[in-house]
């Protein structure tokens, strides 16, 4: 508003060079300030539903003819109140001073300046409201996409478990019954848990422990597992069902093909401003992985690491969810440790509160 008043002052000084710049500035500031105050206060006289949305949650600019009416009234009041006010402040003894309302051109200038200023603030507010609406739409679309990916993962795990149950029913009914009980507990905990886009890492580890207990019924002593979650990382938010597909993949393609089974270790750690979670198994390794586990060149892997799998359904879903939430900073990489087996590494940025 101050900048607009200065511009108007320059213009009026060029038109009336006999009147000093400072006097012109006083007139411009008095008229401009009252115009602005009237228009700003007048916005709150209209019902919010008749105004454009405000990104800060305030009262937006009136729509259509209401905005034109508000600007016209504000400019007229500002001119016919601000002009005498400036004349009174300067004092009648100054020969250069005189009420600008004696000159119709002064009113035209005020109307033009008020219209330009109102249009600018109206356009800026409308653009900000539109940007906020676009951001909200994109955020809702991202959440919907994440929910879709999560709902695709849950039946995928369930179908695999039911297929294993079918085999056990024919070979070991007692273990099949125990596995069914564990599945019931797992589903109750899963469906009763949070359905938000993110949940604490501690809940993800709890869900993973339930799944491993379910798999232990089928594999018995062939499955050994270790979960390591530092206390300072327990509340870090992560997507639900982030680790279960990686553990399922390790069991299915790593441990099950081996007669002796093997061990799975899930380790969470902090690496600078990133959260790193390793899922390590002592299974058959990448060399014996199915042909569908092709590489994904988009993943940035550490030196000597093998590229991450793209063909496995669970791995694809994990990668998509990481990219949707974190962009290039959310990665999944598979590597073959020197001692054999496979290491799946998930990397994602820590929130600002945890990274500090």
Automatic annotation (TrEMBL):
Keyword flag Nucleotide-binding: no
GO molecular function annotations of the record: phosphorelay sensor kinase activity
Transmembrane segments: 25-46, 67-90, 105-123
A GO CC term attached to the entry: membrane
PROSITE patterns, per database record: HIS_KIN
Kinase as UniProt keyword: no
Superkingdom, taxonomy of origin: Bacteria
Pfam families, per database record: HATPase_c, His_kinase
Domain Histidine kinase, chain residue ranges per copy: 242-352
Keywords linked to the UniProt accession: Membrane, Transmembrane, Transmembrane helix
Protein name as it appears in the record: Histidine kinase domain-containing protein
Organism annotation: Pseudacidovorax intermedius
């Amino acid at each position: 508003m101050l900048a607009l008043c200065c511009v108007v002052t320059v213009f009026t000084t060029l038109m009336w060079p006999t009147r000093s710049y400072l006097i012109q500035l006083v007139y411009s500031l008095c008229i401009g300030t009252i115009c602005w105050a009237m228009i700003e206060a007048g916005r709150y006289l209209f019902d919010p539903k008749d105004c454009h949305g405000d990104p800060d949650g305030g009262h937006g600019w009136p729509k259509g003819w209401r905005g034109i009416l508000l600007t016209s009234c504000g400019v007229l009041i500002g001119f016919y109140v601000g002009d005498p006010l400036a004349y009174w402040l300067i004092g009648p003894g100054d020969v250069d001073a005189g009420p600008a309302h004696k000159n119709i051109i002064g009113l035209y200038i005020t109307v033009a300046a008020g219209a330009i200023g109102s249009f600018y603030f109206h356009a800026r507010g409308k653009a900000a409201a539109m940007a906020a609406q676009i951001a909200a739409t994109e955020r809702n679309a991202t959440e919907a996409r994440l929910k879709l990916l999560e709902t695709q993962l849950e039946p995928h795990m369930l179908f695999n478990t039911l297929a294993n149950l079918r085999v056990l029913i024919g070979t070991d009914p007692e273990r099949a019954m125990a596995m069914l009980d564990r599945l019931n507990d797992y589903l109750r905990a899963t469906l009763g848990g949070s359905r938000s886009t993110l949940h604490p890492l501690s809940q993800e580890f709890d869900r993973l422990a339930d799944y491993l207990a379910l798999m232990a019924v089928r594999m018995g002593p062939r499955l050994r597992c270790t979960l390591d979650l530092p206390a300072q990382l327990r509340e870090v938010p992560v997507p639900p069902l982030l680790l279960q597909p990686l553990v399922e993949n390790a069991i299915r393609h790593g441990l099950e093909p081996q007669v002796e089974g093997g061990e799975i270790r899930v380790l969470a750690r902090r690496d600078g401003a990133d959260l790193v979670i390793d899922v390590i198994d002592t299974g058959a390794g990448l060399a014996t992985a199915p042909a569908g586990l092709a590489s994904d060149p988009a993943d940035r892997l550490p030196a000597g690491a093998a590229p991450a799998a793209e063909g496995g359904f669970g791995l694809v879903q994990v990668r998509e969810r990481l990219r949707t939430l974190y962009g290039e900073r959310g990665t999944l990489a598979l590597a073959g440790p020197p001692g054999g087996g496979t290491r799946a590494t998930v990397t994602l940025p820590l929130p600002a509160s945890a990274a500090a």
